[in-house]
Amino acid sequence: MKVIVVGSSHGGFETVRGILAEKPDTEIQWYEKGDFISFLSCGMQLYLEGVVKDVNAVRYATPEQMRAQGVNVFVHQEVTSINPDEHTVVVHNLDDDSTREEKYDKLVLSAGAVPAKIPVPGGDLKNVYAMRGRDWAIKLKEKTVDPDVQNVTVVGAGYIGIEAAEVFSKAGKHVTLIDILPRPLALYLDQEFTDVLSKTLKDHNIYLATGQTVKSFNGEDGQVTAVKTDQAEYPSDLVIETAGIKPNTDWLKGTLDLTDKGLVKVNDHQETSQPDIYAVGDSTKVPFAPTGKELQIALATNARRQGRIAAKNVLGDDMKMPAVSGSSALSVFDYHFASTGIKEGTSAANGVLSQSVFVTDTTQPPFVPNEAGNQKVYFKLTFDPGNHRILGAQIMSKRDVTANMNAISLAVQAKMTLDDLAYADFFFQPGFDRPWNIMNVAAQKALQTLAK
Predict the structure, then answer these.
(1) pLDDT digits (tens, 9 = 90+) for 200-235
(2) What per-residue confidence (pLDDT) applies to 326?
(3) Is the pLDDT of residue 452 over 90?
(4) What is the secondary structure of 222-260 as a DSSP string?
(5) Last residue of a domain, one of 314, 338, 357
Protein backbone atom coordinates (compact mmCIF):
# COMPACT_ATOMS: atom_id res chain seq x y z
CA MET A 1 0.00 0.00 0.00
CA LYS A 2 1.18 3.50 -0.88
CA VAL A 3 0.30 6.35 1.49
CA ILE A 4 0.93 10.00 0.67
CA VAL A 5 1.09 12.42 3.62
CA VAL A 6 0.94 16.15 2.88
CA GLY A 7 2.33 18.51 5.51
CA SER A 8 5.07 17.88 8.07
CA SER A 9 3.93 19.63 11.22
CA HIS A 10 2.25 17.93 14.19
CA GLY A 11 -0.54 16.07 12.38
CA GLY A 12 1.53 14.98 9.41
CA PHE A 13 4.42 13.84 11.57
CA GLU A 14 2.18 11.79 13.84
CA THR A 15 0.49 10.16 10.86
CA VAL A 16 3.85 9.03 9.48
CA ARG A 17 5.01 7.96 12.93
CA GLY A 18 1.81 6.01 13.52
CA ILE A 19 2.07 4.13 10.24
CA LEU A 20 5.71 3.26 10.89
CA ALA A 21 4.84 1.96 14.35
CA GLU A 22 2.17 -0.40 13.01
CA LYS A 23 3.39 -1.36 9.50
CA PRO A 24 6.93 -0.10 8.86
CA ASP A 25 7.03 -1.68 5.40
CA THR A 26 4.27 0.65 4.12
CA GLU A 27 5.35 2.82 1.20
CA ILE A 28 5.12 6.40 2.50
CA GLN A 29 5.67 9.59 0.54
CA TRP A 30 5.83 12.65 2.82
CA TYR A 31 5.59 16.11 1.24
CA GLU A 32 6.58 19.49 2.68
CA LYS A 33 6.20 22.73 0.73
CA GLY A 34 9.00 24.41 2.70
CA ASP A 35 12.60 23.33 2.90
CA PHE A 36 12.41 22.17 6.52
CA ILE A 37 10.26 19.40 7.99
CA SER A 38 8.40 19.27 11.30
CA PHE A 39 9.23 22.71 12.72
CA LEU A 40 7.43 23.33 16.03
CA SER A 41 6.10 26.88 16.13
CA CYS A 42 5.03 26.25 19.72
CA GLY A 43 8.74 26.09 20.59
CA MET A 44 9.55 29.42 18.95
CA GLN A 45 9.57 31.44 22.18
CA LEU A 46 12.23 29.16 23.67
CA TYR A 47 14.42 29.83 20.62
CA LEU A 48 13.79 33.57 20.54
CA GLU A 49 14.70 33.89 24.22
CA GLY A 50 17.87 31.84 23.79
CA VAL A 51 16.80 28.83 25.85
CA VAL A 52 17.18 26.77 22.67
CA LYS A 53 20.26 27.93 20.78
CA ASP A 54 19.77 26.27 17.39
CA VAL A 55 16.61 27.02 15.41
CA ASN A 56 17.11 23.77 13.52
CA ALA A 57 16.65 21.86 16.79
CA VAL A 58 13.03 23.01 17.15
CA ARG A 59 11.61 20.04 15.27
CA TYR A 60 10.38 16.47 15.61
CA ALA A 61 12.66 14.81 13.09
CA THR A 62 15.06 15.37 10.21
CA PRO A 63 14.65 14.08 6.64
CA GLU A 64 17.68 11.87 7.18
CA GLN A 65 16.15 10.26 10.26
CA MET A 66 12.88 9.57 8.48
CA ARG A 67 14.53 8.30 5.29
CA ALA A 68 16.53 5.90 7.43
CA GLN A 69 13.17 4.43 8.47
CA GLY A 70 12.10 3.98 4.87
CA VAL A 71 10.04 7.14 4.42
CA ASN A 72 10.35 8.96 1.09
CA VAL A 73 10.67 12.58 2.25
CA PHE A 74 10.20 15.39 -0.28
CA VAL A 75 10.97 18.97 0.76
CA HIS A 76 10.34 22.11 -1.27
CA GLN A 77 7.69 20.16 -3.16
CA GLU A 78 4.05 21.22 -3.04
CA VAL A 79 0.99 19.07 -3.65
CA THR A 80 -1.18 21.49 -5.63
CA SER A 81 -4.25 19.44 -6.58
CA ILE A 82 -5.95 16.09 -6.08
CA ASN A 83 -7.86 13.85 -8.49
CA PRO A 84 -9.90 11.63 -6.13
CA ASP A 85 -11.34 9.52 -8.96
CA GLU A 86 -7.91 8.58 -10.26
CA HIS A 87 -6.31 8.52 -6.78
CA THR A 88 -3.57 10.89 -7.92
CA VAL A 89 -2.04 14.16 -6.78
CA VAL A 90 -0.14 16.80 -8.74
CA VAL A 91 3.24 17.68 -7.23
CA HIS A 92 5.05 20.93 -8.00
CA ASN A 93 8.81 20.76 -7.47
CA LEU A 94 9.72 24.27 -6.32
CA ASP A 95 13.42 23.76 -7.02
CA ASP A 96 13.18 23.13 -10.77
CA ASP A 97 9.56 24.30 -11.38
CA SER A 98 8.58 20.89 -12.73
CA THR A 99 5.31 19.06 -12.07
CA ARG A 100 4.40 15.40 -11.93
CA GLU A 101 1.58 13.10 -10.90
CA GLU A 102 1.82 10.59 -8.08
CA LYS A 103 -0.67 7.80 -7.38
CA TYR A 104 -1.82 6.92 -3.87
CA ASP A 105 -3.87 4.25 -2.17
CA LYS A 106 -4.48 6.46 0.85
CA LEU A 107 -3.94 10.22 1.20
CA VAL A 108 -3.61 12.13 4.48
CA LEU A 109 -3.75 15.92 4.43
CA SER A 110 -2.17 17.93 7.21
CA ALA A 111 -2.71 21.19 5.38
CA GLY A 112 -2.44 23.29 8.52
CA ALA A 113 -3.14 26.98 8.79
CA VAL A 114 -1.41 30.24 7.98
CA PRO A 115 -1.33 33.51 9.91
CA ALA A 116 -4.37 35.65 9.22
CA LYS A 117 -3.55 39.03 7.70
CA ILE A 118 -5.46 41.98 9.10
CA PRO A 119 -7.36 43.55 6.17
CA VAL A 120 -6.16 47.13 6.66
CA PRO A 121 -3.92 49.46 4.64
CA GLY A 122 -0.18 49.06 5.12
CA GLY A 123 -0.01 45.31 5.55
CA ASP A 124 2.67 45.09 2.87
CA LEU A 125 5.06 47.49 4.61
CA LYS A 126 8.49 46.27 5.66
CA ASN A 127 8.84 45.11 9.28
CA VAL A 128 5.27 43.79 9.46
CA TYR A 129 5.95 40.24 10.60
CA ALA A 130 4.12 37.07 11.58
CA MET A 131 5.14 34.56 14.26
CA ARG A 132 4.68 31.12 12.77
CA GLY A 133 7.23 28.83 11.17
CA ARG A 134 11.00 28.62 10.99
CA ASP A 135 11.53 31.46 8.50
CA TRP A 136 9.70 33.93 10.72
CA ALA A 137 11.56 32.63 13.77
CA ILE A 138 14.90 33.50 12.17
CA LYS A 139 13.72 36.97 11.15
CA LEU A 140 12.25 37.70 14.59
CA LYS A 141 15.45 36.57 16.31
CA GLU A 142 17.39 39.18 14.34
CA LYS A 143 14.97 41.90 15.48
CA THR A 144 15.44 41.08 19.16
CA VAL A 145 18.99 42.44 18.91
CA ASP A 146 18.40 45.14 16.30
CA PRO A 147 19.24 48.52 17.92
CA ASP A 148 16.98 50.30 15.43
CA VAL A 149 13.97 48.43 16.80
CA GLN A 150 12.83 50.10 20.01
CA ASN A 151 9.04 50.15 19.70
CA VAL A 152 7.37 46.81 18.98
CA THR A 153 3.63 46.51 18.42
CA VAL A 154 1.97 43.12 18.72
CA VAL A 155 -1.52 42.78 17.26
CA GLY A 156 -3.44 40.01 18.98
CA ALA A 157 -3.32 39.14 22.69
CA GLY A 158 -3.81 35.39 22.51
CA TYR A 159 -1.11 32.84 23.27
CA ILE A 160 1.16 33.75 20.36
CA GLY A 161 0.76 37.48 20.95
CA ILE A 162 1.60 37.11 24.63
CA GLU A 163 4.68 35.07 23.74
CA ALA A 164 5.81 37.73 21.25
CA ALA A 165 5.24 40.53 23.75
CA GLU A 166 7.25 38.72 26.43
CA VAL A 167 10.12 37.96 24.04
CA PHE A 168 10.59 41.58 23.03
CA SER A 169 10.01 42.92 26.54
CA LYS A 170 12.84 40.69 27.76
CA ALA A 171 14.92 41.98 24.83
CA GLY A 172 14.59 45.50 26.26
CA LYS A 173 12.02 46.84 23.80
CA HIS A 174 8.91 48.86 24.56
CA VAL A 175 5.95 46.72 23.58
CA THR A 176 2.39 47.72 22.75
CA LEU A 177 -0.13 44.87 22.80
CA ILE A 178 -3.30 45.52 20.79
CA ASP A 179 -6.43 43.40 20.85
CA ILE A 180 -10.05 43.97 19.90
CA LEU A 181 -11.16 42.16 23.06
CA PRO A 182 -11.22 44.03 26.37
CA ARG A 183 -8.70 41.77 28.11
CA PRO A 184 -5.53 39.92 27.09
CA LEU A 185 -6.01 36.15 26.87
CA ALA A 186 -9.76 36.68 27.14
CA LEU A 187 -10.56 33.49 25.21
CA TYR A 188 -8.44 31.39 27.57
CA LEU A 189 -8.88 32.87 31.04
CA ASP A 190 -11.60 34.61 33.02
CA GLN A 191 -11.10 38.05 34.51
CA GLU A 192 -9.84 36.92 37.93
CA PHE A 193 -6.73 35.64 36.16
CA THR A 194 -6.30 38.24 33.45
CA ASP A 195 -6.44 41.08 36.01
CA VAL A 196 -3.32 39.63 37.66
CA LEU A 197 -1.59 39.00 34.34
CA SER A 198 -2.45 42.46 33.01
CA LYS A 199 -0.60 44.03 35.92
CA THR A 200 2.34 41.72 35.32
CA LEU A 201 2.49 42.69 31.64
CA LYS A 202 2.38 46.40 32.51
CA ASP A 203 5.15 45.91 35.09
CA HIS A 204 7.33 44.57 32.26
CA ASN A 205 7.02 47.62 29.96
CA ILE A 206 4.12 46.21 27.92
CA TYR A 207 1.34 48.70 27.21
CA LEU A 208 -2.09 47.11 26.90
CA ALA A 209 -4.12 48.67 24.11
CA THR A 210 -7.06 46.31 24.57
CA GLY A 211 -10.57 46.96 23.32
CA GLN A 212 -9.12 48.64 20.23
CA THR A 213 -9.46 47.94 16.52
CA VAL A 214 -6.54 48.34 14.11
CA LYS A 215 -7.37 50.74 11.29
CA SER A 216 -4.06 50.92 9.42
CA PHE A 217 -0.33 50.33 9.46
CA ASN A 218 1.35 53.62 8.64
CA GLY A 219 4.82 53.98 7.19
CA GLU A 220 7.50 56.03 5.52
CA ASP A 221 9.73 54.97 2.63
CA GLY A 222 8.01 51.59 2.53
CA GLN A 223 8.68 50.73 6.16
CA VAL A 224 6.18 50.65 9.03
CA THR A 225 6.40 53.51 11.52
CA ALA A 226 3.12 53.33 13.43
CA VAL A 227 -0.07 51.38 14.02
CA LYS A 228 -3.29 53.37 14.05
CA THR A 229 -6.32 52.09 15.93
CA ASP A 230 -9.79 53.53 16.45
CA GLN A 231 -8.47 55.17 19.63
CA ALA A 232 -4.79 56.07 19.20
CA GLU A 233 -1.65 55.81 17.12
CA TYR A 234 1.37 53.84 18.37
CA PRO A 235 4.96 54.34 17.15
CA SER A 236 6.18 51.04 15.73
CA ASP A 237 9.57 49.97 14.42
CA LEU A 238 8.29 46.40 14.18
CA VAL A 239 4.76 45.01 13.99
CA ILE A 240 3.96 41.38 14.73
CA GLU A 241 0.57 40.14 13.56
CA THR A 242 -0.80 37.37 15.75
CA ALA A 243 -4.52 37.96 15.21
CA GLY A 244 -5.49 34.38 14.50
CA ILE A 245 -5.01 31.86 11.73
CA LYS A 246 -6.89 30.72 8.65
CA PRO A 247 -6.94 27.20 7.19
CA ASN A 248 -4.59 26.58 4.29
CA THR A 249 -7.30 24.99 2.18
CA ASP A 250 -8.05 27.26 -0.78
CA TRP A 251 -6.44 24.68 -3.06
CA LEU A 252 -8.96 22.06 -1.88
CA LYS A 253 -12.09 23.98 -2.90
CA GLY A 254 -14.17 21.96 -5.33
CA THR A 255 -12.37 18.75 -4.36
CA LEU A 256 -13.34 18.26 -0.70
CA ASP A 257 -16.30 19.48 1.33
CA LEU A 258 -15.28 22.53 3.36
CA THR A 259 -17.07 24.60 5.98
CA ASP A 260 -17.92 28.23 5.34
CA LYS A 261 -14.67 29.11 7.14
CA GLY A 262 -12.62 26.82 4.91
CA LEU A 263 -12.14 23.94 7.35
CA VAL A 264 -12.06 20.45 5.90
CA LYS A 265 -15.11 18.44 6.92
CA VAL A 266 -14.13 15.11 8.48
CA ASN A 267 -16.03 12.34 10.22
CA ASP A 268 -15.02 10.69 13.50
CA HIS A 269 -12.47 8.54 11.64
CA GLN A 270 -10.76 11.63 10.10
CA GLU A 271 -12.20 10.72 6.69
CA THR A 272 -13.09 13.54 4.30
CA SER A 273 -15.91 13.69 1.77
CA GLN A 274 -13.77 11.71 -0.70
CA PRO A 275 -12.90 8.04 -0.22
CA ASP A 276 -9.37 7.20 0.93
CA ILE A 277 -8.61 10.85 1.77
CA TYR A 278 -8.13 11.85 5.39
CA ALA A 279 -7.47 15.23 7.01
CA VAL A 280 -5.92 16.19 10.35
CA GLY A 281 -4.68 19.24 12.21
CA ASP A 282 -5.52 22.93 12.31
CA SER A 283 -7.61 22.83 9.13
CA THR A 284 -10.20 20.54 10.76
CA LYS A 285 -12.52 20.46 13.77
CA VAL A 286 -12.34 18.13 16.78
CA PRO A 287 -15.11 16.80 19.06
CA PHE A 288 -15.31 18.96 22.20
CA ALA A 289 -15.89 16.86 25.31
CA PRO A 290 -17.95 19.34 27.39
CA THR A 291 -20.62 19.71 24.70
CA GLY A 292 -20.15 16.84 22.26
CA LYS A 293 -20.10 19.37 19.42
CA GLU A 294 -17.26 19.92 16.97
CA LEU A 295 -14.96 22.93 17.35
CA GLN A 296 -11.79 24.21 15.77
CA ILE A 297 -9.20 23.92 18.55
CA ALA A 298 -5.78 24.51 17.03
CA LEU A 299 -3.48 22.69 19.44
CA ALA A 300 -0.52 20.43 18.76
CA THR A 301 -1.99 17.79 21.07
CA ASN A 302 -5.15 17.58 19.00
CA ALA A 303 -3.25 17.39 15.71
CA ARG A 304 -1.01 14.62 17.04
CA ARG A 305 -4.04 12.69 18.29
CA GLN A 306 -5.80 13.11 14.94
CA GLY A 307 -2.67 11.98 13.11
CA ARG A 308 -2.52 8.79 15.12
CA ILE A 309 -6.24 8.11 14.57
CA ALA A 310 -5.82 8.71 10.82
CA ALA A 311 -2.86 6.32 10.72
CA LYS A 312 -4.89 3.61 12.46
CA ASN A 313 -7.76 3.95 9.99
CA VAL A 314 -5.46 4.15 6.96
CA LEU A 315 -4.07 0.78 8.02
CA GLY A 316 -7.52 -0.78 8.31
CA ASP A 317 -8.28 -0.39 12.00
CA ASP A 318 -11.62 1.04 13.11
CA MET A 319 -10.81 3.87 15.51
CA LYS A 320 -12.77 7.01 16.29
CA MET A 321 -11.31 10.36 17.31
CA PRO A 322 -11.91 10.75 21.06
CA ALA A 323 -13.46 13.93 22.41
CA VAL A 324 -10.97 16.47 23.76
CA SER A 325 -11.18 19.13 26.44
CA GLY A 326 -9.06 21.78 24.72
CA SER A 327 -6.41 21.80 27.45
CA SER A 328 -3.59 24.32 27.13
CA ALA A 329 -1.02 26.13 29.26
CA LEU A 330 1.36 29.08 29.08
CA SER A 331 3.87 30.98 31.20
CA VAL A 332 3.65 34.77 31.42
CA PHE A 333 6.84 35.97 33.07
CA ASP A 334 6.69 34.52 36.63
CA TYR A 335 3.17 33.12 36.34
CA HIS A 336 2.17 29.72 34.95
CA PHE A 337 -1.43 29.06 33.99
CA ALA A 338 -3.49 26.34 32.36
CA SER A 339 -7.11 25.96 31.36
CA THR A 340 -9.36 23.24 30.03
CA GLY A 341 -12.92 22.86 28.85
CA ILE A 342 -15.52 25.57 29.27
CA LYS A 343 -14.94 28.77 31.19
CA GLU A 344 -17.39 31.31 32.50
CA GLY A 345 -16.41 33.60 29.63
CA THR A 346 -16.97 30.96 26.92
CA SER A 347 -20.06 29.28 28.34
CA ALA A 348 -22.62 31.31 26.38
CA ALA A 349 -20.73 30.92 23.10
CA ASN A 350 -20.86 27.15 23.60
CA GLY A 351 -24.59 27.23 24.38
CA VAL A 352 -24.04 25.89 27.88
CA LEU A 353 -25.58 26.95 31.19
CA SER A 354 -22.77 26.95 33.73
CA GLN A 355 -21.76 28.16 37.15
CA SER A 356 -18.30 28.65 38.62
CA VAL A 357 -16.48 28.90 41.92
CA PHE A 358 -13.20 30.72 42.41
CA VAL A 359 -10.80 29.80 45.22
CA THR A 360 -7.34 30.91 46.28
CA ASP A 361 -4.96 28.96 48.46
CA THR A 362 -1.27 28.32 48.87
CA THR A 363 0.47 25.46 47.15
CA GLN A 364 1.75 24.09 50.48
CA PRO A 365 0.73 24.29 54.17
CA PRO A 366 1.11 27.74 55.79
CA PHE A 367 4.14 26.68 57.84
CA VAL A 368 6.17 26.27 54.64
CA PRO A 369 7.85 29.64 53.88
CA ASN A 370 7.65 31.35 50.51
CA GLU A 371 11.39 30.99 50.13
CA ALA A 372 10.88 27.22 50.10
CA GLY A 373 8.55 27.47 47.15
CA ASN A 374 5.17 28.02 48.82
CA GLN A 375 3.14 30.28 46.51
CA LYS A 376 -0.37 31.61 46.14
CA VAL A 377 -2.52 29.63 43.71
CA TYR A 378 -5.71 30.70 41.92
CA PHE A 379 -8.24 28.10 40.80
CA LYS A 380 -11.64 28.37 39.13
CA LEU A 381 -13.94 25.42 38.53
CA THR A 382 -16.84 25.55 36.07
CA PHE A 383 -19.75 23.10 36.23
CA ASP A 384 -23.34 22.44 35.24
CA PRO A 385 -25.51 23.58 38.18
CA GLY A 386 -28.24 21.13 37.17
CA ASN A 387 -26.47 17.78 37.01
CA HIS A 388 -23.21 18.87 38.73
CA ARG A 389 -21.12 17.76 35.75
CA ILE A 390 -17.64 19.29 35.59
CA LEU A 391 -17.23 21.40 32.46
CA GLY A 392 -13.79 22.98 32.84
CA ALA A 393 -11.31 24.82 35.02
CA GLN A 394 -8.45 27.32 35.16
CA ILE A 395 -5.41 27.44 37.43
CA MET A 396 -2.53 29.89 37.92
CA SER A 397 0.39 30.37 40.26
CA LYS A 398 4.01 31.48 40.32
CA ARG A 399 4.71 27.84 41.04
CA ASP A 400 4.04 25.39 38.24
CA VAL A 401 0.80 23.67 39.23
CA THR A 402 -0.50 23.42 35.66
CA ALA A 403 -0.54 19.59 35.72
CA ASN A 404 -3.75 19.82 37.76
CA MET A 405 -5.50 20.65 34.49
CA ASN A 406 -4.71 17.17 33.21
CA ALA A 407 -6.82 15.76 36.03
CA ILE A 408 -9.68 18.16 35.25
CA SER A 409 -9.43 17.32 31.54
CA LEU A 410 -9.90 13.66 32.39
CA ALA A 411 -12.80 14.59 34.67
CA VAL A 412 -14.47 16.47 31.81
CA GLN A 413 -13.97 13.62 29.36
CA ALA A 414 -15.20 11.04 31.89
CA LYS A 415 -18.27 13.18 32.67
CA MET A 416 -17.39 13.31 36.35
CA THR A 417 -19.43 15.44 38.73
CA LEU A 418 -18.67 17.77 41.61
CA ASP A 419 -19.60 14.92 43.94
CA ASP A 420 -16.87 12.77 42.35
CA LEU A 421 -14.22 15.47 42.51
CA ALA A 422 -14.99 16.77 46.01
CA TYR A 423 -13.45 13.72 47.66
CA ALA A 424 -11.28 12.34 44.86
CA ASP A 425 -7.98 10.86 46.01
CA PHE A 426 -4.88 13.01 45.48
CA PHE A 427 -1.59 12.54 47.32
CA PHE A 428 -0.36 14.85 50.07
CA GLN A 429 3.19 15.62 51.13
CA PRO A 430 4.08 19.03 52.67
CA GLY A 431 7.03 19.44 50.33
CA PHE A 432 4.61 19.41 47.41
CA ASP A 433 1.05 20.39 48.28
CA ARG A 434 -1.84 20.70 50.77
CA PRO A 435 -3.80 17.90 52.52
CA TRP A 436 -6.81 18.83 50.38
CA ASN A 437 -5.88 19.41 46.78
CA ILE A 438 -7.25 22.71 45.53
CA MET A 439 -9.46 20.75 43.12
CA ASN A 440 -11.11 19.06 46.13
CA VAL A 441 -11.52 22.42 47.83
CA ALA A 442 -13.22 24.00 44.80
CA ALA A 443 -15.61 21.08 44.31
CA GLN A 444 -16.54 21.12 47.98
CA LYS A 445 -17.17 24.87 47.82
CA ALA A 446 -19.32 24.42 44.71
CA LEU A 447 -21.48 21.80 46.45
CA GLN A 448 -21.88 24.09 49.46
CA THR A 449 -22.90 26.93 47.15
CA LEU A 450 -25.49 24.79 45.37
CA ALA A 451 -26.90 23.55 48.68
CA LYS A 452 -27.82 27.05 49.85
Answers:
(1) 999 999 999 999 999 999 999 999 999 999 999 999
(2) 96
(3) no
(4) TEEEEEEESS-EEE-SEEEE-S-EEES-GGGBTTB-B-T
(5) 314
Dump pLDDT digits (tens) for 340-379. Answer: 999 999 999 999 999 999 999 999 999 999 999 999 999 9
pLDDT score of 138: 96
Name the active-site residue from 10, 87, 336, 388: 10
Question: Containing domain of residue 423, as a range?
Answer: 328-451
The predicted model scores a pTM of 0.94
- Residue 254: pLDDT band (50, 70, 90) is very high
The CATH code of the domain that includes 342 is: 3.30.390.30
Considering the domain architecture, whether residues 368 and 414 belong to the same structural domain is answered as: yes
Number of domains in the chain: 3
Q: What percent of the chain has pLDDT above 70?
A: 100
3-state helix, strand, coil in the chain (%, to 5): 25, 30, 45
Residue partners of 307: CB distance under 8 A and separation at least 6: 10, 11, 12, 13, 14, 15, 17, 18, 108, 110, 280, 281
At 343 the pLDDT is: 96
Angle at 72 between CA 71 and CA 73, to 5 degrees: 100
Query: Dihedral of the CA atoms 395, 396, 401, 404 (nearest 10)?
Result: 10
From first CA to last CA, the distance across the chain in angstroms is 63
- Specify the CATH number for the domain of residue 208: 3.50.50.60
pLDDT at 149: 97
CA distance 304 to 339: 19
The values of phi and psi at residue 392, to 5°, are 170, 180
434 three-state secondary structure: coil
Does residue 104 share a domain with residue 216?
no
Is residue 204 flagged as an active site residue?
no
Say whether 10 is catalytic.
Answer: yes
CB 115 within 8 A of CB 105: no
The predicted structure's pLDDT at residue 140: 97
Which of 188, 223, 243 is the endpoint of a domain? Answer: 243
- Helix, strand or coil, per DSSP, at residue 41: helix
Distance CA 122, CA 222 (A): 9
